[in-house]
Amino acid sequence: MSKISAKKEPASDFENLVRNGIDFLTKAISQLESEPKHSVINFYTGVEIFLKAPLVHEHWTLVVVDRDLNRQNYEAGDFLSVSFDDACTRLATALNKPLQKTAKEAFDKVRKHRNRMVHFYHSGINGKQKEAIKLEQAQAWFELNRFITDTWREEFKPFQSEFRRMERDLINNNHYAKAKFNSLKKKIDGMKNGGHVFEDCPGCGTSALHVEEEVEDLITSACLVCFHSDKRVKLDCPACGKANQSLVAYESFECKKCGHKVSDDDLFDLIDQNTVRGTKDDLDSDTPANCDECQSYHSVCEYQEGYVCTNCLTYFDHLEKCEWCNDPMTGSSADTYALGCEHCDGYAGNVGDD
Ligand SMILES: [Zn+2]
Ligand SMILES: [Zn+2]
Ligand SMILES: [Zn+2]
Ligand SMILES: [Zn+2]
């Protein structure tokens, strides 16, 4: 591919592709009950399109097999598109973001089923087979949703509202969430017996939200069905003293009892457990530190014998120091003398290019 110039294509290739992907998925979902065979075929077409979309976003040549690299033919649709395996490989090698193993497995299942549907004649599909198709699509859908709204969030941003709409439709019909929940029920029951706690998920509505106390008063939850996740800390309202109020990551605080609000700028003081801050004993405090999870400046305070970022609520058991600017940070300080941290340019940034 090195012969091809690195010039970026206008966004339209990508946009057209994504619109097609949404079309195929919407169609597949509407056919699930009435025409399962066509649903399988259209669903896989949708999956394949989304898989290739980040490649097209980077450069159209990434979805074309090497011997067919001709823009005119590409525009005419006269080209051989890369295979499923090659698309997965190119996501990893050309874009440096390999597909998650569980996603690849889920997509591959749909692909093989699609091939069976296309190559062998199926006269009818019974209820049991229909349930299997539904589960297969459910697993692929949640992986695809994570691929689109998390891994490739920036690229797919212009389509966020359309994905949300599809998600809402699906949740209302409870098509996929229920199917996937049922397939996980044994595992969830087993975990419950082992003392794990599950709650209703705000994302998909099933009770597959696994809730854990990471350290005292810091709660993390992750849904086994839809991958929704969040973090919150429990604290007392600074105005009325009401205990066990929740502060959710990336949000500001509002007391459920008295309505008292704490703005983002004051969250640090609300969560911080350093008892000597601002006094003469504060000299060797290593906070506020910078968060390398969410790239916030001076957002990390002392918390439960460790540290927590008051923006993303990630917990850290130790801090390091940038070897160039000396600011405490949550990430690794290796190479920071030369290259700097998120908030400085290091030695390299302070000398001329040559
Ligand atoms: Zn969920
Ligand atoms: Zn209050
Ligand atoms: Zn953070
Ligand atoms: Zn620095």
Can you describe this structure?
This protein is of the alpha+beta class and 354 residues long. It has 3 domains: 12-173, Four Helix Bundle (Hemerythrin (Met), subunit A); 193-268, no CATH class; 279-354, no CATH class. The protein has 11 helices and 12 strands. The protein has helices spanning 12-31, 36-58, 71-75, 84-93, 101-119, 127-151, 153-156, 160-173, 175-193, 267-271, 336-339; strands at 197-199, 209-215, 218-223, 229-235, 245-248, 253-254, 261-262, 300-303, 306-309, 315-316, 320-321, 328-329. Strands 1-2-3-4-5 form a 5-stranded antiparallel β-sheet, with helices on one face. A 3-stranded antiparallel β-sheet has the order 8-9-10. Strand 11 (320-321) and strand 12 form a beta hairpin. Helix 2 (36-58) packs across helix 5. It is globular, with a radius of gyration of 25 Å. The site of one zinc ion has 9 residues, from loops.
Rg, Cα atoms, Å: 25 Å
Strand order of the largest sheet: 1-2-3-4-5
Name the ligand types: zinc ion
Average of the residue pLDDT scores: 89
CATH superfamily of the largest domain: Nucleotidyltransferases  domain 2
The general outline is globular
Strand content: 5-15%
Provide the structure class: alpha+beta
Percentage of helical residues? 40-55%
Count helical runs. 11
CATH level 1 name of the largest domain = Mainly Alpha
The arrangement of helices and strands along the chain is HHHHHHHHHEEEEEEEHEEEEEH
Q: Extract low-pLDDT stretches.
A: 1-6
- Total strands: the figure is 12
Architecture (CATH level 2) name of the largest domain: Up-down Bundle
| Major sheet size, sense and barrel closure | 5 strands, antiparallel
